[in-house]
Amino acid sequence: MKILGIDPGSRITGYGIIENTGNSISHVDNGGIQPDHKLPFSQRLRKIFDELANLIDIHKPDIVAIENVFVAKNVRSSLLLGHARGTAMVAASLANLRVEEYSPSEVKQAIVGTGRATKCQIQHMVKAMLNLPEIAFEDASDALAVAICHCNTASFKNRLQKQQLINKRRDK
């Protein structure tokens, strides 16, 4: 399964693509979409949309995992972040991809083992988990972390569902 992780932002939208084969995950691509800050906001959103649509077309992920909006320092920041997040979700939806959402604390818990992990801890763990030659920049690391979080969460949910089916059959 190929997973596109997205860390939405109106200034920089991080992306990370991983592939899950059996019990291993591997790095495919990562980076950031950074629209020109001089563009009108609607055009910055268009740039984010176009670049994500292009990444989806090139890499053909099976699913998109995106970080939920958190309460930013101010309401305006939260609204701008929400617009970028919605833009990313529309790009995925138009490609008929399912979108799974994870809170920042869920991602941190899945990667570092604590919901209060620092950005630096996330970066180092992502580097180690994907055997990257260097630490990816912050937004790309966050996006890769979201993708890894989905990989781990989906695997756990699948095992849980299988066990529930086995238990139902046994109980009959």
Summarize the structure in words.
This protein has helices spanning 41-59, 75-94, 104-112, 119-130, 138-171, and strands at residues 2-7, 13-21, 24-33, 63-67, 98-102. The chain is of the alpha/beta class and 172 residues long. Helix 1 (41-59) runs parallel beside helix 2 (75-94), helix 3 crosses helix 5 and helix 4 (119-130) crosses helix 5. The relative contact order is 0.19.
Furnish the topology, listing elements before pairings.
Layout: E1 2-7, E2 13-21, E3 24-33, H1 41-59, E4 63-67, H2 75-94, E5 98-102, H3 104-112, H4 119-130, H5 138-171
Parallel strand pairs: 1-4, 4-5
Antiparallel strand pairs: 1-2, 2-3
Helix pairs in contact: 1-2, 3-5, 4-5
Tags for this model:
172 residues; alpha/beta; five-stranded mixed beta sheet; 5 strands
Short structural summary:
Helices cover 55% and strands 20% of the residues. It is built from 5 helices and 5 strands; from the N terminus they run E-E-E-H-E-H-E-H-H-H. It has a 5-stranded mixed sheet with strand order 3-2-1-4-5.
Largest sheet: 5 strands, mixed
Total helical elements = 5
Amino-to-carboxy terminus distance: 34 Å
Judged by helices, strands and strand pairing, the structural class is: alpha/beta
Helicity, as a percent range: 40-55%
Envelope shape: globular
Radius of gyration: 17 Å
Please list the strands of the largest sheet in the order they lie side by side.
3-2-1-4-5
Q: Which spans have pLDDT < 50 for at least 5 consecutive residues?
A: none
Beta content: 15-25%
> Secondary-structure element sequence?
EEEHEHEHHH
Number of strands: 5
